[in-house]
Amino acid sequence: MPTTPKALFVLLIAIAFTLPAPAFAKGVINTSCSSQISEIFRGQVLSEFTKATGIKANVHIFSSQISINRVKTGINEMATTALKLSATDKKSGLVEIPLCKDPMVVITGNDINVTNLTLAQVRQLFSGFISNWSEVGGPDLPVRIVTPVRETAAYVNFTNQAMGASQLKFDYQAAKSSGAVEAVNHIPGTISFATRSVVNQYDDIHTFIIDGLSPSDPEYPYTQTFSLVTRGEPSGMIREVINYALSEDSRKKMKSRGLTPLIN
Amino acid sequence: MHLKNIISTIFLLSLLLTMGCASALTMSAPRVEEVGYGEKGVGERINVVYMLEEDEGTYTLSRQPYCKETVEEIQISRKRPRGFIVALCELPLYGLGVLDYMVAKIYANASEEELGRLPVPSGEVVPCGDVEQAPGEKVLLQFPDSERVKQLLTDDKATLHLEEILKEKSRDLQINVFVKNEGNILYIKTIDRTYKM
Question: A77 and A53, same structural domain?
Fold first, then answer.
């Protein structure tokens, strides 16, 4: 064997002796979460879970569809979503566990003194046929429509449940569902929609009563269901998170935030 | 020629001088504290895990306690092997650099002293008891698509009678099964009906 490769061979052996031993990895859960429920799920369920069990959880905020995709591709072990899984997703092995329901509310700032709308008016406002608040008994202010982007569950659910055949238009779009609420809080004359538990945190925003039904009424028809999604049956630490989210304590906290637990 | 001999001599002398440097550096280095991990054990009980087994259409419920897994965290004081670059320089001398670094490593490993052991949670959850049958348990069936919830009880032999429910025509492709235990709801299994597609 020639001299140079011999020396290289000896060098490689020497380097091999200095390679570090593999690190011991502790359990961490990686999860994606829709922004609509992130505050409750991350702030209450997961942080309390970590305190109780010592198991850490990394939460990444994405739209519901992206959260589902991240579970499908194995990037995350679990997702919290407001979108229903398709039959194809279920056939590919995704499991959906609906956790709670929250009314989807139509919102505007307190600068608009209108509180009651009919469904027809809601559709006309969001499709641009009503362009000034004075047409529905409000102040002389142009109607500005803010929606979350099409990929969000809030957009999909609102279009399917409330808009009927009317097309949903927008003046501004927010990347996250919670961003649309922020816009309503700051831009005069805006109208948008969101899940009630997000809106409740803002003092300068009010929700509309639609066709005589307030979001607190049991017959209020516009709701979003928040589910936990896993790839295959949940087991190990993921199962513990689900059990914690379904515990008596968590269900009480959900109810105090206006959410309706689906399994009681 | 004379100059060549001088240079070769200087080179050889410097190599000879560096011999044993890696071992000497390691012996004179200060101790460092490191953390190692020892045996795994079982900590406090978290909850009971229920299992639903199916055998030719008969579903039987059983349960097993689960606990937090612990691992021994060992505080170690030791010397770290030093002088790797110096040992590399010794390699041309019949590969003695390898021997020098090996001695340094052996010395570093022999200097290891255990300062203390403490069980800490590993982050995992493991079974910590025998599996037993679960008769008289309250079982909740959730149908995700239609958002219905049905309540059943397991009989004396821990059997869950799902024949009528599974025969029903419904759009639900999955049925989530839970047990209600002391106010808490525990996930057991998802019955897959996507074969009906």
Answer: yes
